[in-house]
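As the next step, I selected for study one protein, both as residues and as discrete backbone shape codes, as given directly below:
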Amino acid sequence: MLHLLRAPLTKTSGAVKGGLIQSAGQYALNRVLGELFGYNPNAVKGGLSMAEYHQLNKVSSYEKGALMVGVGQKNAPGIDAVDLDNAKGISLKTASNPDRVEDRAKDAFKQATKSGFHDVQVYIDAPGVSKSEVTGVADIQSTLGDGTITKVVIFTGEGPVEYRPTEAEQKEIEKRVRCRENREGGFSCP
């Protein structure tokens, strides 16, 4: 069966051929594994390290099998991957203690802002941290107010903790998005 997953030889540049073959082959293999074993990670490695790729698989499973692709370069500013099913940027972080969880959420916000990204979702892998240590942390919630970061999920040793904008923050985000779209279309904001 594995011979069916081999990519055909093509006459393209090495970089293009390597990237296409890796992405197509990896995606096909993930689909086959999903069918055989009842799970479907739906993540394509791209330029991610193996640790980041494993984390992206965890994120894809958490997001119910959404197709996620690692960006093409290491240490890309702002995002590490793209959720193709939901058109969101993905930032992958790790933390060893509750203080680092807060720092990593703030770092993701700064990097996404500096790079001009909007609607980024942050996933922090913190297996040595408990849910109670990262629930209701104001510094994490504060990264969600302007639409740059729209969700922070912390994978603790006890399970995930999710932060989303409050209803008031969500309305403000929608207003800013409409304003940004108006400016791009040559209109002014009210």
